Amino acid sequence: MLTFDDLLTRARSLAGDGGGRALLGIAGSPGAGKTTLAERLVRELNGTGEPWVAHVPMDGFHLADAELDRLGRRDRKGAPDTFDAAGYAALLRRLREEPADSTDVVYAPGFERVLEQPIAGAVPVAPTARLVVTEGNYLLLGTGPWQRVRAELDEVWFCETDEEERVRRLVARHVEFGKGQEEAVAWVARSDQHNAELVAATKERADLVVRIPV
Fold this sequence. Notes:
Layout lengths: L3 H12 L6 E6 L6 H13 L6 E3 L9 H7 L13 H13 L8 E7 L4 E9 L5 E6 L9 H6 L3 E6 L2 H14 L4 H20 L7 E4 L3
Parallel strand pairs: 1-5, 1-6, 2-5, 6-7
Antiparallel strand pairs: 3-4
């Protein structure tokens, strides 16, 4: 079984010595622990020296609620077609192709969970970043513009955990950010679970499956 030190070694090796920027994706169903793993990897790899690893979540590419209302997709927020997948792929390509001697900061959008809205220009990627860790549900989805996302990533790891714990975390997250308990349970059962099943079907396309302990 892989240890966290094994994951650090594997992630570190992606950057190599070529001077270019490497991109590591972490996929998985909602509540599987993707963000926790990504943040820990970035924190441990950066250590106390000059940061050389950046974290760019996929969630910044959520469509705004106003656009979801216009499209009639607000009640399915979190589904693949409620993200700007083409924009996400374009950002990943820019991050990959940025010259090693560039002095430009690349800005990515973030996601404000209290507002449940994307925030433009919230995530800076410094020119010193040689490895970008990005995480989200649909990195391995093989349909539509999501195919372009996988093509920009050097590796994609699939993060999974105990199913009962995953659902518990999701409900707790929705409650923390404003939903009532019953509303949160209903949303997870109706929307999140459908998305989770879609994501689980992509696991076989991953380069590595990472089992997150409960």
